[in-house]
Amino acid sequence: MRSTIVMTGASRGIGRVAAEHILRRSPDVQLLVVARESAVAQMSGELGTGVSYVAADLGSLASVRTAAAEIRERLDRGDLPPLRGFVGNAGVQYTNALTEGPEGFEATFTVNVLANHLFVRLLQDRFAAPAQITITVSDTHFGDFKHNLGMVPGPLWQSPETLARPGAFPEPDTAAAGLTAYSTSKLAAIHLVHEYARRLPEGVDAVAYNPAFVPGTGLARDSGPVARFAMRYVMPLLTLTPFATSRSAAGRYLADVVLGTTKAPSGSYVDRGAVVRSSEESYDPRREHELWEAVERFTEAHAT
Ligand SMILES: NC(=O)c1ccc[n+]([C@@H]2O[C@H](COP(=O)([O-])OP(=O)(O)OC[C@H]3O[C@@H](n4cnc5c(N)ncnc54)[C@H](OP(=O)(O)O)[C@@H]3O)[C@@H](O)[C@H]2O)c1
Q1: Which of 170, 189, 242, 246 has the largest count of CB atoms under 10 Å?
Q2: Atom 43 of ligand 1: nearest residue by CA position
Q3: Which residues pair with 132 in a beta bridge?
Q4: pTM for this entry
Q5: Residue whose CA lies nearest to ligand 1 atom number 35
Q6: CB of 155 closer than 6 A to ligand 1?
Q7: Architecture of the domain spanning 3-302
Q8: Can you give the residue ranges of every domain in the chain?
């Protein structure tokens, strides 16, 4: 079945491997990669046929809106096959909780939560069932030793108005605050997947994908030299244990979810290749409703 899959975070790391799998395994898929202008220039030609690009900085809601408008126009003109997938794989991690985007929202929350939400809402009426939204989350949302060996502090939920703004966490200029912003943003993303599963039209599913700890990607690029060294040369040894996943396996697992090789019901959480429960905290319909209302407000000015 000919189809378009829109994907963010395909320029490197887990997403790059997943994009290569999708293209190799599904020749009928037109992969529409949303990436920074600099990454588009570099990727064009590298990924071969079956790919087209839209430039966007996901740290800016205005940029996401422009990209989504371009995708809608290309679909409406018939330049692309029917839209059957959105993969929100892009993600960031900062060494503070103070980085502010152009619209005044904290940068981790903007890329990991608001950008995906805006894409989902602006593409919602263009999806052709059966379609699936896949959002890359993280098992740091559990906040326990078992899931991240204490490397990342667990989420610290607060009102969405606080979470979305710089300085939401104690000692906001520290790496611990930046990592707390990260795990909390991933919990928020899981909450929204639950809300999408309730709200999206029949036949448009939403799934959260967790790759587990994947050393050696660009995610820790904002860290200091010691952490970057450990991430690059020491942590990869952990892929010999069940605790960590290699980049190639994480990308393949993501492609399996996107292509439906791993069957996952709407609203579910896929840990690598298996549907499992996310944290108990992540199932909270009241909080999810409140978060939905808030992200609708935050993105309102860019949602048409
Ligand atoms: N690595 C892990 O241990 C781990 C564990 C659990 C979950 N995850 C999640 O997996 C996903 C992929 O991460 P990764 O580890 O593969 O990290 P990565 O190598 O840093 O890849 C991140 C991707 O997101 C893109 N991106 C980030 N900010 C962007 C922006 N403002 N505009 C456009 N694109 C932007 C990057 O594009 P550029 O190349 O242009 O920067 C890149 O393609 C993320 O959602 C991450 O949170 C990672």
Answers
A1: 189
A2: 9
A3: 85, 205
A4: 0.96
A5: 90
A6: no
A7: 3-Layer(aba) Sandwich (3.40)
A8: 3-302
